[in-house]
Amino acid sequence: MSDHVDQPLEAAHPFDIKGCRERIVAENGGYEVVHRSPGLELGVYVLVAPEPDRQQPHEDDEVYVVLEGGGTLEIEGTSVELRKGQAVFVPAGAEHRFVGYEQLSVLVIFEKKPSS
Q: Could you tell me the pTM of the whole model?
């Protein structure tokens, strides 16, 4: 059986980010992966107050793109105010969490490192 990396990647297929966000909002928050391929993961993360952000540091670099709402991302003791249309980079291993939001929806882009 060949490794999945040797198989051609599916190209040019749409990701229903809006529909995914609406589903998660209806469920009162959560995370859903919309695409996964070698080296990349895209997901939609929705936080609804008063539920706290319980993230732990990730093994991979990531970027958050704010789709709806706004709030503050605390990264290693630094606070970054974010609103719709803005993005922020979080390096692998950094302590981080969202605070000060009522409802926040973000597109999460992970650079997935190859497995050893």
A: 0.85
